[in-house]
Amino acid sequence: MISKGLINSKAWIPPVAVFFLGIFSAHAQEVKPKKDTIREKEIDEVVVIAYGKAKRTSYTGSVATISSDKINNRPVTNITKALEGQVPGVQAVSASGQPGATASVRIRGVGSVSASSDPLYVVDGIPFDGNINSISPNDIESISVLKDATASSLYGSRGANGIIIITTKSGKKGESRINFNISQGFSDRAVKDYKQVSTDEYFQLYWEALRNGYKSGQITSQQAGQMASDNLVTALGINPYGTGFPNPVGTDGKLVPGAKALWNDDWRDILQRTASRSQVDFDISGGSEKSNYFFSLGYLDDKGIAIESGFQKFATRLKINSEVKKWLNAGVNLSYTNSIQNAPPSSDSRTDNIINAARVIPSFYPYYERNADGSYRYDADGNRIYDFGKYRPTSALQNQNAAATLPLDKNENKEDNFSGKGFLDFTFLPELKFKTSFSVDLVNYNGHYYSNPLIGQGSETGGSVTKSNSRTLSYTTSNILTFDKKLGKHHLNVLAGQEFYKYDYQTISGSRSQFSLPYYYEPDAAALLGSFSGNSDKFSLLSFLGRAEYDFNNKYFFSVSGRADGSSRFFTDNRWGKFWSIGGSWKASNEDFIKNLNVFNQLTLRASYGGQGNDKLRRPNGSSLYYAYQELYKFYNNLGEPGTVLEKIQTNDVKWETNLNLNVGLEFAVLNNRVKGNVEYFKRKSQDLLFNMPVAPSLGISDFPFNVGTIQNTGFEFSLFTTPFKNDNFQWNVDVNLSTLTNKITKLPKGSVISGTKRLEVGGSIYDFFIPEWIGVDPSNGKPLWRYIYQDANGNTVDGTTSEYAKATKTVQGSALPKVTGGVSTSVAYKNFDLSGLLTFSIGGKILDTDYTSLMSNGSAGGRAWSAEMLNRWTPENPNTDVPALSTTTNNWNSTSSRFLYSGTYARLKNVSLGYTLPSDYFERLGLKKFRIYVQAENLLTFYKHKGMDPEQALDGTTYYRYPAMRTITFGLQATL
């Protein structure tokens, strides 16, 4: 029995989570805490689910919610980035810090190989097909994440990977309100780049590489040292020490006395910057007994840390709901967004990748031309002259200077997003209602890429331009009939409906080159026609759905649902997929024997099981395949004659991928709702996987779609919400969530399937690294060693080593998938002050850092920057090391292997916010209802062992010269009239 003192509203309660003191979280309290807090009401809150709402305590499915105060005040451009660490079972990874980029979201693991694993986004009850960037975080009332079959089966194939339901704000009954939010922020790198060697260190190291490369049976070490001293400046193409030191490194490998670099131009200083972020949001809302309205305007200007990168967005929304008649409600929800993203290449190994360029050019190569004495050279107008490094080795990005070219080039993506929704809700009887709705999403995209003809790579071709346009139109119609009746202790709710979805995509693109005049960006100004292409895709989905829910005496709850989807992707014999779910829950806290314990304020046990389908097959390049069963062709110009080549064979047998989901959960609340929690176990089995089966090139095609294999995701999810202390003036909340994940392939048609650095095999995970195993450095000669498994002359298997990378044996080296992910949040409210924070973390999994390998050449890539780790290279005096000897002879030691596989465990202080709300007697004089000022930080601190790499990478665990995450400090004010 618990004493009454422990549940007194002013008591101190030492909860399980008290050790998280000092980690601050998610949301600011904007008013003084009251005895009747939202947190106490959450125990029976209404949550948004598929085609309706439900009370959390009676719902049989798995649903998690994020309220508006956890979203609205975050300086995030895209709402997917606000999901990180907020919901157990949801993995949201921001692979790019490029303003306007989205996070990759996975709910309860990866459920497919070649088909999409993206969740379905539903906005105000209707599936959303627009760019998720177009939804302003300030417009959001709440986000619900549906994770199990009961929660998402009504969306059938569209909800196979979970559902994220976004509910936008509506006006409320009463006096009209005007809300205004303005903020100004500043951004830099969230993680410092890799540490590099200095100019002095580089010249001495490269001398060593040259000497070791020259040494042979005919050339002694002393002779090689002299040759290295004589040829060092020539090999690197520059002498930053001036004409007074023609051989800055002596034959002993040390800088000669008096030699000092005349400049130190860190390219990260000129190609990256402290960026600004400006945001203004304005909305008007209100309502009466029979109608309500909400209107918003928003502007965002988010500069990137890379020069010439950024994201601008103008957004507006109008939402009106009205009771036209007692038996008819109507509503309309219109939104429009115009965005401009400036995005220089920043996500692959292209030589013009601005992130990579800032990293790989050493600081002794100047970005402005220098005289022999180190002074700047100037043009006729007195301006500094950009140095394009024609003398630089190829590895140091010869003939390139992004600081000069990017301001003259264009890398522009423009989008117009329109979304319109409307509904009519008829009440025939108090128990019988019918709702018909229509939604349309229109996305118009224009890409404009221009390389100027004056300087840089474009000058070699007279400049070039590529313009592309795409138009995506989709619409959804739904008709839902519901019957809701309560008779005594019995309650029945039945839903039946029909839905139709249509998708239409068109794109066109062309390029030209050779501009006769500079500063003209359009294709008409270029003389030579290059390429011209265009295509279109269409897709349709017809669905019928139904659900029945029954509860007895508010204690026992049962639900069953079904949906049939007809997809145009499949052949007529396999077109229809049938999906279902069953679920039940027991609200044990309503039983007398539980009530008599005086322990639980809430205790609910729930379980569900069901099947869903997935038809979202993708090509190997990631684009959608809308004609999975049809024979497809490519068209070529064969010496002026049209030619046709088979691209994909007809596959009438390809069918739906199926997801079977089991969920068992326990929800509880104790100590007068001061401690609440939820524990769930899930098992997600994906069978008949849609897969692009590779075939021999001799067949004339590269692959074909096929149903193959089974994947299983299992794990536990845990959430704990606590209020350790609360009184009239002070409240402290601490929330913790975490989830575990085990991914296993249980069935494949053959032993294994290799794709890049990954291998799929029974018993392994979907993201297992299959790469050579690094053994180390041979201490006797400094050569790299990899594992080499071979058969000797007697047929025995020998486990040995090799210094030849081509002979190295590939083996499984762990998985990219983390074992545990989660977040810790806390909020403190004292009178008119509020302080909050969010810490996210990921434990386990591995990351293949291919960015780092570019800084780890053995010396064969002369002129390319070196990591500071190269100072620990092998020498006769330092034989026990993990860095091989330097040489200009290629040894492939920085090729893909477990040497560059690092732990994926990290923690990030995702958000910290401090605010102050002026006392009412101050702002009421100004006619305000509320006035709050605040400062907040996003991505403030990152705790990670492998310095230089941002651990928040792509889901497959491989870095690829991506735009780093940004740390943003924001100052702002909020006012309500």
Q: Which features does this protein show?
A:
977 residues, mainly beta, 22-stranded antiparallel β-barrel, five-stranded mixed beta sheet, disordered N terminus
What does this protein structure show overall?
The protein is mostly beta strands and 977 residues long. 7% of the residues lie in helices and 47% in strands. It is built from ten helices and 45 strands. The strands form ten sheets. The protein has a 22-stranded antiparallel β-barrel. It is globular and about 100 Å long. The two termini are 49 Å apart. Mean pLDDT is 90; it is low at 1-41. Residues 58-163 form the TonB-dependent receptor plug domain. It is found in: Cell outer membrane. This is SusC/RagA family TonB-linked outer membrane protein.
Number of strands: 45
- Outline the biggest β-sheet: 22 strands, antiparallel, barrel
Shape: globular
- Name the assembly state: single chain
Fraction of residues in H or I helices: under 10%
How far do the termini sit from each other?
49 Å
Q: What's the rounded overall pLDDT mean? A: 90
In a nutshell, what does this entry contain?
It is found in: Cell outer membrane. With 977 residues, this protein is mainly beta.
Helix/strand layout:
Elements (H helix, E strand, L loop, with lengths): L37 H4 L4 E4 L2 E4 L7 E5 L22 E4 L10 E4 L12 E4 L2 E2 L12 E7 L2 H4 L10 E6 L5 E16 L9 H16 L6 H16 L30 H5 L3 E13 L3 E13 L6 E16 L2 E15 L11 H7 L41 H4 L4 E20 L2 E20 L12 E24 L2 E26 L10 E27 L3 E12 L8 E12 L4 H4 L4 E15 L17 E7 L2 E8 L8 E14 L4 E13 L2 E5 L8 E5 L2 E17 L3 E11 L1 E6 L4 E4 L2 E4 L6 E5 L1 E4 L6 E8 L5 E6 L7 E6 L4 E11 L2 E11 L2 E3 L1 H4 L47 E3 L2 E12 L2 H4 L6 E14 L22 E11 L1
Parallel strand pairs: 6-9
Antiparallel strand pairs: 1-2, 3-8, 4-5, 6-7, 8-9, 10-11, 10-45, 11-12, 12-13, 13-14, 14-15, 15-16, 16-17, 17-18, 18-19, 19-20, 20-21, 21-22, 22-25, 23-24, 25-26, 26-29, 27-28, 29-30, 29-31, 30-39, 32-33, 34-38, 35-36, 36-37, 39-40, 40-43, 41-42, 43-44, 44-45
Helix pairs in contact: 3-4
